[in-house]
Amino acid sequence: MLSVVMFLTIVSVSSSVLSEKSTSGDAALNFTELGFKYGHSVEEHDVVTEDGYILTLFHIPGKTKGPVLLMHGLFDSADTFIIRGNLSLIITLANKGYDVWVGNTRGNKYGRRHKYLDPDAGPKFWDFSFHEAGYYDLAALVDFVIESTGDKSIRTIGHSQGTAIHFVLLSTRPEYNKKIKGFIALAPIAFLSNLIPPVSKMAKAWPVINKFLERSGVDELAQDRSAATELTRLLCSQGLIAYDVCYVLFSSPIIGFDPVRVEPEFWEVVMGYSPTSTSRKTFVHFAQLSTEKRFAQYDYGTVRNIRVYRSLIPPNYDLSKVTTKISLIASGNDNLSRLKDVDILRTMLPIEPKYYVMEPMLWNHVDFIWANDMQDFQ
């Protein structure tokens, strides 16, 4: 299994290598082009889920070590793991010989396709939350990697929502515990019971905001091609002032204040890739985890809950069925994955996970994938 020690080792990159190539201009490149820039050929595969969504799965072939599948967070895509260039987790793994696979969930820029549904023609395409991303998307991606490699089981790494979908899959389809032999959870998300302002206030206000969006016919959030997203990216990528406003003042209260590890130059790269789209329903589901203080399936309301679940309230995800070996890696400065909530998750897992809290304490929610000093953590 990829242990915590191994993870901290594989993310180390020498400063001499880092200086050879910069991330200048990377914001204009797609995943495959970034892979080529940093020395690796990239394969692109279409993976079709049981319910018809078509997801792009990227593959950087490795010969000396086994397959590793990486899954991104909310408002994110596979790009997030490679935009740091030589310092990124993907390039580091690939340079060390791992067979690297990088997945996408439905709704983002690499997951806006379906066998029958049109994402631009009504709400049906967007009728999903992170539950479906775990139950269908992650299952299909794991199966594809196993079938492609011939391995009986694989290792996985998830960040933020990418961890939540693992806990969904492993608890609702326990046969996948045998297919995932080791899982590293970066900034784990399951319980959101101990959020602090402004995130907690956003969660409480979301039912009202959701009703407004629903009445306005908004089912897709942060649409990549929308004028609002393009304007946000433009305004938040214009030098130091945009960095101070968009990252330090706006983003930091949500993800945790750490202006050191995401510098202004790299923030401009980030804004070329983030945010990418997701469903309104996904955001609702996460807000429910906070307000209802349970790691539970989507709450449709009493009447529909009875029809869907045969219960007044949605069932909890049964974490006692999660038997995969897990490493939880968290931080005290993460305003989304709070240590108190990670501790609740630890107690709910039947097999004691390895647990590591990042130091220094400024390490925040996005530093797990974007920090500029990964080479210092060996």
Name some characteristics of this structure:
alpha/beta; Rossmann fold; 9-stranded mixed beta sheet; two-stranded antiparallel sheet; disordered N terminus
Overview of this protein structure:
This protein has 378 residues and is an alpha/beta fold. The chain has a single domain (4-376), classed as Alpha/Beta hydrolase fold, catalytic domain (Rossmann fold). 38% of the residues lie in helices and 13% in strands. Strands 1, 2, 3, 4, 5, 6, 7, 10 and 11 form a 9-stranded mixed β-sheet that branches. A two-stranded antiparallel sheet has the order 8-9. The longest helix has 20 residues, at 130-149.
Secondary-structure map with pairings?
Elements lengths: L3 H7 L4 H6 L10 H7 L5 E6 L4 E8 L6 E5 L17 H7 L3 E4 L10 E2 L15 H20 L4 E6 L1 H12 L7 E7 L12 H17 L4 E2 L5 H9 L3 H17 L8 H7 L7 E2 H13 L9 H8 L16 E5 L8 H10 L5 E4 L9 H4 L8
Parallel strand pairs: 3-4, 3-6, 6-7, 7-10, 10-11
Antiparallel strand pairs: 1-2, 2-4, 2-5, 8-9
Helix pairs in contact: 5-6, 7-11, 9-10
Question: Uncertain runs with pLDDT below 50, 5 residues or more?
Answer: 1-24
Number of spatially distinct domains: 1
Question: Which value, in Å, is the CA radius of gyration?
Answer: 19 Å
Helical residues, percent: 25-40%
Instruction: Report the mean per-residue pLDDT as an integer.
Output: 90
